[in-house]
Specification:
By secondary structure, the protein is mainly alpha-helical. Helix content is 56%, strand content 6%. It has helices at residues 8-15, 19-27, 46-51, 74-151, 176-184, and strands at residues 5-7, 35-37, 41-45.
Amino acid sequence: MVRPMLNQREAAAACGVSRTTIRRRREAGDLPGAVQDPVRGWLIPVPDLLAAGFRLNAPAGPAAPAADSSASGGGHHRLEDRDDQGDVAGLRAELERMRHEHALAVAEAEHGRRLAEAEAGHLREQLGVRAEQLAAQAAHIADLQQTVRALMPAPERPELGPAVPGQAQNGHHLGPERQESEVAHGEQPRWWRRT
């Protein structure tokens, strides 16, 4: 006859205990018929579970009725209940620690976000002030350039001779006697002269 075999998860569910309890009992040698299967993991015979004091299909949780202490294995059952309660307390403590760490991480992330927003606002403000300063400097430079252009002398123009005969370089008309004297002395009139 083939003995029914349960893996550790199935055995824990059938007995109403944790997998850790089943594993500890197996490692302690209380389940001698346990064998390791490459697919299903550790397989435990149902008679070994019963011999170790477990009850199959027992109600889960600490409200389950306690086994008769005078029966063989009753002491083991109370010990297992204590182990389960210790496992539950340990898991609750671990859960609380993880919640606390998570809350700290969230608070730290929120603090970092607020600092980053404040820094970004400060940098935007500084950038705006700097842009205003640069605009004021550009306007000041334009004013200075205009002032320098106003103070510079006009470019010199070459002096041109009179364009009309008998007209002097300054725009006054030469008298006929002066024109004749220049021609009489062999001089060219000024308007012919090259400068």
